[in-house]
Amino acid sequence: MFQIIANGFALYLNLFFLLTPFFVLGTFIAMTDGIDETLRKKLAFRIALGATGVTLVIFLLGSFIMQLFGITVDAFRAGSGVLLLLTAISLVLGKDPEKKITDSAKLLDMAVVPLATPITAGPATLGALMVLGTTTPDIQGKVITCIAIAAACFSIGFMLRMSDKINQLLGHANITILSKITGLILSAIAMQMIIVGAKNLWLMP
Questions:
Q1: Cα–Cα distance between 63 and 66 in angstroms, integer?
Q2: pLDDT at 185
Q3: How far is CA 105 from CA 54, 112, 163, in A?
Q4: Do residues 176 and 63 lie in contact, with contact meaning Cβ atoms separated by under 8 Å?
Q5: How far apart are CA 164 and CA 34, in angstroms?
Q6: Helix %, strand %, coil % for the chain, to 5?
Q7: 178 φ, ψ to 5°?
Q8: Contacts of 125 (CB under 8 A, 6+ apart)
Q9: Would you give per-residue pLDDT tens digits along the chain (205 residues)?
């Protein structure tokens, strides 16, 4: 039981960093500067809900999608690794945040697209989840992964809900530094995906 909990927590941490939390936080702060706190909290919840829905669908239906298009797991793993590496590089080098939106209704409409996806759950994250879905065949593993996905998404939502306090506590400069550290962690995950995928493709009969 302890091993299952430990594995689930490790998976949760991987998924949390895959969602590039500090980049999302910086973007959210930039876009909602001066917005009413109640609206900001509502937006944070919608983003978490939207990201959870999208990521769970990709995780659960990823194997079907790959079978439909005749894509192997290793090819998708290597391709997703490249995308993830590009995401990591953009985080480390820095990327300009989205522009501030002043219209409350328009901001809420943007909760799922682009805030939940692709800003929170981008193509690289979805690709990694698709691979994870195909390599997790047992029911127990899928249930644990679904819980970890939901926990990671709602952890992002909680961060966004507390964005004002986090911004005051850390400051914009420190959030940028944490975003770059996230990029370094993602680059390691990406390289592992690329190497494993390329190796298996090379050895394929």
A1: 5
A2: 84
A3: 22, 13, 20
A4: no
A5: 10
A6: 85, 0, 15
A7: -65, -35
A8: 18, 19, 20, 55, 84
A9: 778 889 899 999 999 999 989 889 988 987 887 788 889 999 999 999 999 999 999 999 988 888 888 888 888 788 888 887 887 888 888 765 555 565 676 777 778 877 888 779 877 788 889 889 988 889 999 999 999 999 999 999 999 999 989 988 988 788 888 888 888 888 888 898 899 889 988 887 6
Alpha-carbon span 121 to 154, nearest angstrom:
12
C-alpha gyration radius of the chain: 17
Cis peptide before 21 (omega within 30 of 0): no
Report the half-sphere exposure of 47 (CA within 13 A, side-chain side): 32
Spacing of C-alpha 161 from chain mean position? 17
Identify which of 97, 84, 115 has the alpha carbon closest to the alpha carbon of residue 184.
Answer: 84
Number of Cβ atoms within 10 Å of the Cβ of 48: 24
CA 79, 85, 87, 89 torsion-angle sign: negative
Count the residues in the chain.
205
